[in-house]
Amino acid sequence: MDWEVVVGIETHAQLATRSKMFSGAPTAFGAPPNTQASAIDIALPGVLPVPNARAVEFAIRFGLAIGARINRRSVFARKNYFYPDLPKGYQISQYEQPIVEGGALAIATPAGEKTVRIARAHLEEDAGKSLHEDRRGMTGIDLNRAGTPLLEIVTEPDLRGAREAAAYARALHALVRWIEICDGNMQEGSFRCDANVSVRRAGEPGLGTRCEIKNLNSFRFLERAIEYEARRQIAILEEGGRILQETRLYDPARDETRPLRGKEEAHDYRYFPDPDLLPLVLAEDEIERVRREMPELPAARRARYAAEHGLSAYDVALLTESREKADYFERALAAARAPAKLVANWVNGEIAALLNDAGLDFDAVPIAPERLARLLERVHDGTVSHKGAKEVLAAMRARAEDADALIAALGVAQVSDRAALEGLVEQAIAANPKLVADFRAGRERALNALVGQVMKASRGAANPAQVAEILRAKLAG
Ligand code: ADP
Ligand code: MG
Q1: Which of 128, 269, 371, 420 sits a CA distance of 20 to 30 A from 435?
Q2: pTM of the full structure
């Protein structure tokens, strides 16, 4: 029996504002505990929250980026529950009327592009943090995170399987960074996902009972947690059992999910509109201003690179992994008298590999795109081979000289000078009568051996294509 794995994802993206959602306290990560929680963040008596205009703007930006409806009127609600890291007893969120509804995000799958529908995205504030480590059996409470602005982004149950879910999470992560509303730092918890997972037999119309796996803070854990959870549910159903709707946690050390709370213990949050906050009403000109200031989006860039430069879907998908990478590619391309395909291959290949080795990102490429452009021109005109150019690139990290100077200094220029090559070819012919006879007798492989002799004599500097051509001409004559 074939099973289908159905996934819907809820993501908490921390908005990259300097101050909190409803107070002026700073959001910077890593401050000493409880130094960044203001009276408003912990709702001391008599304080009044004021919405952060920048956070609202970021939510609009996100809505526009996914083609969603921006609700002109949305409502902040109190979500009531008790937890030690929430001394105020409620979190301010949006419930019945979120700021963003609908829209979609395209993801790449092995079967081609797929559209994932977004149900909603709403503004809310984060809670504090409980610290269990190094507390000698006690729990510490750090309220610095209390009141930090979050955008919670919820998909429809459109994802099928762990791979697709991870592809969606990556695409969303890339988008929020691209439009600069979230720094995407997963170690610091700026981007975390909850995965809702159910399974059903292929062809079954309705959805199965789901479990929700909370707080997955890496793409790998997200993928593995869903794989484990699907296997667990399928095993239960195949034995004739029933899935209990519950919230579970993924334990990476044991690669399994464990129950956290069941539906029976699920909270009734008693949502109601926050009496301290007016409905959030957006003016048309504000939405228009955000629209005007939107950067060109990844999908638009992909289409443009494909149309203007004839690059493949695969190449453009890689080039637009981040805005910094796409910008780097464009600057290198603008500076180089070399084909776009060559520039794309080097940005996606050698530059990406170099950054990976150095633990860097495209926001900090140690080689300026204009320097890369000079080198690629030399690859294109045959001055240097791909292999030689890789040596030059490696040297560029430590040395300031331009490509031409490094090609000379490293001695990696290909010998393309016709007279020099002809001299080497003649020597090889004179020194290898057996190979020459073999080639003339029709053994094509003898030519490769002769090319090899010339390459060796030139210590790898000869241009092999040109050597073969000269050899053919001389042996035919
Ligand atoms: P809740 O109110 O409990 O948070 P929602 O309807 O908001 O539930 O759904 C939360 C997430 O769960 C959404 O991403 C949704 O797509 C997903 N989801 C809902 N039902 C299922 C299901 N049967 N299987 C997988 N995902 C589901
Ligand atoms: Mg929910």
Answers
A1: 420
A2: 0.86
